[in-house]
């Protein structure tokens, strides 16, 4: 019998189907970014822990330099996959695939680097952030400080107003959509520049609750009927050259319950709130958007100010 948390984990995507993990191996952007970051972060002789190992590919990257890698995976199907694939690859013997719940597991010794891949946009659905916070508390209680380096080191999240096409061969359906970041979609019109709503530094305590209210200056006229959510994982900070190794999740477009007609120069106020690991509908239901200043009103106000200044 599954307990309550295991049922929730299955529902929220912790047990990702095997074929999804196989598709991730074919994502060249993901693979190259993680390989570069791991090769930068993991030095010879280090001990590494991966929480949620999947196929074991990230543990494999780490094993090329590390002395020992603990690869923790809860899904028994993926445990078998990881062990099979690692046995086929160079230095796979350095990786110990552990069938355990990452919410409860601690390595038998201190580690230098912890890999915990952030898969979902906005830190939604999956439990990586909560898992890392749980790990930090338990690790400090057993081993004391300092904490290992986390990979990703941080995440930057932004939102962007859109006019999104929801016509499918004449069938109107405002649905949640995901888009690769390197493709231009003619049905997507960006109405304003993205606005950053959260930066999480995983070396510090992370608040599970995200709440934001901000304003966008509309640059193009259109019908604001969706928000694009953008998530950039800062996998590793390369201090010696002042650069970062990043990986962008797919864009996520959420439809607005009440679309707005906007013009260039309008100011739109947007707010939303959700909990890391929560459902997409919980975020979708919290979104509020309204026009707080029309372009004509701003021009008129500026004109009044100019006339007043002329008589000062």
From TrEMBL:
CDD domains: AdoMet_MTases. The keyword Transmembrane helix does not apply. GO terms for molecular function: methyltransferase activity. It comes from the Bacteria. It holds the Pfam family Methyltransf_25. The keyword Methyltransferase applies. GO terms for biological process: methylation. Residues 48-137 form the Methyltransferase domain. Keywords: Methyltransferase, Transferase. This is Methyltransferase domain-containing protein. The lineage of its organism: Bacteria, Pseudomonadati, Pseudomonadota, Betaproteobacteria, Burkholderiales.
